[in-house]
Amino acid sequence: MAELQHLSPEAHARLAAELKDLTTRGRIDIADKIEEARLLGDLSENGDYHAAKEEQGKMEGRILHLSSVLENCEIVEQASNDSVTPGVIVEIRFEGDDATETYLFGSIEERRDGLEIISPGSPMGQALEGGSVGEVVDYEAGAGSLSVEIVSIEV
């Protein structure tokens, strides 16, 4: 069974729209490309045909992935910026550092341009989840225990 993923309403809507587009327009477009390439002749040496078939395989893989994510997800409503939940932007400071770092908290499917992601399934993500501003959380990393302060949370 696939792992349950927590998604923000925005990420869920974006993924559902992408799935719908790929299963309708995307499949029609790739079928047209394959047909056009077939008309060029010998398929064994037809680069256009092989490229179109490879593109089709990648697209079908994405369709399977999106279907799995959407079938095995829980939509998490973000009521406020009081705690770290999927879809929020969290600013943290590692113990002993003056500088802060900003991340998007959630699954890779929550991604936004310019922000790295902290997965809720990672050790740091597990420690941060549910935390609030000002809280210091500890987690085990490969080099030992690390402490992180939650500086701010943005919706």
Descriptive account of the structure:
The chain is an alpha/beta fold and 155 residues long. It folds into two domains: 71 residues, Orthogonal Bundle (Helix Hairpins), CATH 1.10.287; 66 residues, Transcription elongation factor, GreA/GreB, C-terminal domain (Chitinase A, domain 3, Roll), CATH 3.10.50. It is built from three helices and seven strands, in the order E-H-H-E-E-E-E-H-E-E. Strands 5-4-3-7-6 form a five-stranded mixed sheet. Strands 1-2 form a two-stranded parallel ribbon. The radius of gyration is 21 Å and the shape is elongated. The protein starts with a strand and ends with a strand.
Short note summarizing the structure:
By secondary structure, the protein is of the alpha/beta class.
Q: How much is the average pLDDT? A: 89
- What number of structural domains do the residues give? 2
Q: Kindly report the spatial arrangement of strands forming the biggest sheet.
A: 5-4-3-7-6
CA distance, first residue to last residue: 31 Å
> Which residues form runs of ≥5 with pLDDT under 50?
none
Query: Number of helix segments?
Result: 3
Number of strands: 7
**What does the main sheet amount to?**
5 strands, mixed
User: What portion of residues is helical?
Assistant: 25-40%
How large is the radius of gyration? 21 Å
Any idea what the shape is? Answer: elongated
* CATH class descriptor of the largest domain: Mainly Alpha
Q: What is the CATH third-level topology name of the largest domain?
A: Helix Hairpins
Task: Report strand %.
Answer: 15-25%
CATH architectural label of the largest domain? Orthogonal Bundle
Q: Return the structural class.
A: alpha/beta
Strand-and-helix sequence, N→C? EHHEEEEHEE
